[in-house]
Amino acid sequence: MSHSSTSGLDGTVSSISNVETTSDTAQLINTEDASTSNYTQLNKSVNFEDSDDEEFHGSHGVRRRQAQQKIEPGSMNVLSAKYESLDYDTCENHLLLDEERKRGYPFVVWKDIARWFIILLIGIATALIAFTIDICIEEFSKIKYRELKKSVDKYVVQDRLYIPYLLWVLSNICIVFIGSMLVAYVEPVAAGSGIPQVKCYLNGLKVPRVVRFKTLVVKTVGVITAVVGGLAGGKEGPMIHSGAVVAAGISQGKSTTFNKDFKVFQYFREDHEKRDFVSAGAAAGVSAAFGAPIGGVLFSLEEGTSFWNQALTWRTFFGTVVSTFTLNCALSAYHGRPGELSYPGLLNLGKMEPFPFQFYELPVFMFFGAVGGLLGALWNHINYRLTVFRIKYIGSPWLRVVEACLVAAASATCGFLMMFLLNDCRPLGEDPTKVPLQLFCADGEYNALAAIWFQTPEASVRSFLHDPIGSYKPWSLLAFVISYFLLSSWTFGLSVSSGLFIPNLLTGAAWGRLLAIMIQYMLPSNTINPAKYALVGAAAQLGGVVRMTISLTVIIIETTGQISNALPIIITLVVAKWVGDFFNEGIYDIHIQLAAVPLLPWEPPPLAHNIYASEVMSHPVFTLRTVENVGHIVELLKLVSYNGFPVVDPPLADDVEVTTYKRLRGLILRSQLIVLIQNKIYNENANTTWSNFNVDMNMFRKEYPRFPSIDELNLADWEKTCTIDLRPFMNPSPYTLPHRASLPRMFRLFRALGLRHLPIVNDVNEVVGMVTRKDIARYRVWRHRGHMGMEELILSSEI
Amino acid sequence: MDINSYHVFFFLFLHSLTILKADTSIREPINLELLLARTGEGYLTSFPEECSTILNRFADASSNFTKCSILHARPIRICSRCIEQYMQFKTIYDELLTTIVNGTSCKSIFISHDRLDAVLEYHDNILSIWDKGHCNTCFNWSDKVPVLSNETKLFNEKFNETMACIMKYIDPSTNDTQPVCENCMQSYIQLDNYYKTLSDDAIGVDSICMDVVDSMNATRSIWSKTLNCCKIRRTPEIIFLCCTGIISALPIFYYLVLRYFSPMRDLPNVLKQSRFKQTILRSLGRTN
């Protein structure tokens, strides 16, 4: 067999197009073994004849997928090949060493100070965005509901109630239409709460456009329209996303959207630094949303950030405190009480009295937790089915906009029908009501359901938590719980930006209050505190849906200002999480899995020590030689979509026939290669073109984070024959593992260090394979209904 | 460190001790003085005469107000009927605070000495009743003597008019309330509208004097519950129900149409992964 991969240092283009090889180093053009690469460009003519029979019965108790060729949409057992990892690993090349030599300790100190300053800015900016959102929602809602009330008051005596009703429907549709158009056409990644996206980003995945300025604008406008438009959504989730975008924007000192570089903070322009700021920004967002600084830090730790350290905790906490404080100042000033600082967050559940509880009540809280877990699992399942339906049938943006408008209309219908049918009247003045709507009640009374529907959901949560026990009739509560449960599950996942915290808190508070009333009926001699059960119910419902424990507990403690409620809440939340996990995943994980994102969980799959690197790795590796031909590089970059290439020693000339693997020298990234070619750093013109050109790290930082694609580079023919010495630019000591390393070992290395590429070497340090995130993430553990197992996911590049 | 600094520390230590002591030693002389100043019932000498008199009058004023407020609790007329008692009570209390006899103020004798603090407690209770009812807003405070404000007067006028009308047309022998509703509608609506203009808050709990609020509540209750004059509000609303029916059916239609008529997109293909095992299998197959 002729051999090709070892065509010597001069490596001409023709030499790589040879066919028929025994080499285990991948060839660029491979006519026969079409399936040697992950990429569709390469295997258009895949033949499935050698469908690996062995893969059906798992050799290690691993449930393998059938080698089906098509994927059912909405499948959770797929990974998308489109997602790229972020580069967290520092590339210790010569340029970095040069830079370190020049700088020294004053620079380290300066960088630290800059970090704190950026965190301060992040806190302030996030709080100001939260302030804007809050004020807009409050003012617009006030206008909307005041006008609607006038209209109802006018037409109710004329038997023409359909006029205010249609007015409500129309206003909802119009407002939601604006937000939905923005989300569907301008920036689809701004849909939903944004927490899954931020979670993926912090896990080390490049989610396209997730931290751009445009996303922030769409998100802000979107959340205002969604809440003012009367959808069953909250503004808390989007705040977290907004905080993340703010952090990513400020820390980079430049904006690609505006094409403006402020020439500051260049040293933070790398994925590693940006990730730390984004996790602090997400925490600042939580803290602005809930007025919960510690809850924000814990949220970032529990739900978001995959990489954490002590210094970051401290900085993050500083950011969250600044954020709460700024929002507090701004809101107090706005409400005419500057300096009073009584508005710490967007969601303020109001001060709760410490509720005393007895030992015998703990089982009651557990029962509430179980109910919350069941309802949460049901909520997630409904939302899952809806999302699958949306993936399958609602593809085009305008269909999504229509859907959002229909949901807005249905929300108004639901509210109006409930007010109309359930005549739950309350005397005026006993409870604080902003828009008391009389409807069919007697004079001096108002409709209790209208009071709930004619205000923002946050205010409704407050009413449920604080109103006295007789404020709502059980039947109205039941109707409200059912309708709001379904509405909120229907709303989440629409093409609008709104979160699920508030709707679930509201549903939970309503059924908690309902159960409290039932307990009161059963035990008429005891006085039941409805606030206690409403709060526990709210926590249980939310915990059943999102499956968070500690951060949610702390958030609720901080929003209610009562530390003594911690025990009931944590018991409830833990039970809710366990019960919910028995049936399905948390809502964020469901959405992440539906998006086929290769997210790495906290722990490696258990009982997987018998899976070795040689099975996990992608086998034929595309390598580059230490001194490589430009034409070859360009060819390779155009052909494959890999991002990291092991740099290997050129083989010795005399063992052309036998060589299979080559010795590892380093690792170079696609982005680095592109920058090198773009700047024409060739050996041949070393003395002419870039002799007085400063080759340093800034050359790479300038393009970050959006490097041009290889197709955008124009290359003259003469350049293709040039060569590049990759040694000064590559990472000379990439993390590697021997081919006998086990899956948990690889997983931990990958996860803890945030790696992107892990070359697998044999006993003599020759590259035999490459492990990337998708190779590891395809081993996924599931545990439901008392069973547990591991399955190997399939990949697709078309999701 | 030299001797001096130790001195300083020592001094500071002693000084703080004396400060700590001072807390108790300030109290002692007063207690002692009081004890010396009282006679009978465990005290050595009696109070200054003036203070005792004021206390006496204060007790009378408080009980007068309490009596009045309890008597006028239902229907609430506390503000308008008890204003004299309230003014009296307030003046005497001010007197109690300001009177000083031989350098000892009456306040220091009666107020803030013990856990019970009965005088202050009763005073605060009475004040809280008054403030809870926003009674001050009933009156015009520009003169020395408070008089009913114009708003309150006007409201009372309209209220009396309406009640008179209802009393006039009501016929207890029959259950038919139709004549009352028809004849008094005009004055009732006037009253209702006037009441709504009194506060800018939607429910009027913020600032309106409790007498007015209660009168209005009572009237509204009589009007809409006893007399049942609000039947007009309950109407069939057929068109409304049709609209809701249509709009709630829309999403279902939408989903059904999408389900059965939307073009099925191409299913995504599975990517063939490149693994070590396949290469071995393939090369084995080739060599065979």
TrEMBL record, chain A:
Its main location: membrane. GO terms for cellular component: lysosomal membrane. It is found in: Membrane. Pfam families: CBS (PF00571), Voltage_CLC (PF00654). Residues 730-792 form the CBS domain. It is a multi-pass membrane protein. PANTHER family: CHLORIDE CHANNEL PROTEIN CLC FAMILY MEMBER, H(+)_CL(-) EXCHANGE TRANSPORTER 7. This is Chloride channel protein. The gene is LOC113492039.
TrEMBL record, chain B:
Pfam families: OSTMP1. It comes from the Eukaryota. GO terms for cellular component: cytosol. Keywords: Membrane, Signal, Transmembrane, Transmembrane helix. The keyword Cell membrane does not apply. InterPro entries: Osteopetrosis-assoc_TM_1 (IPR019172). The keyword Nucleus does not apply. This is Osteopetrosis-associated transmembrane protein 1. The gene is LOC113502540.
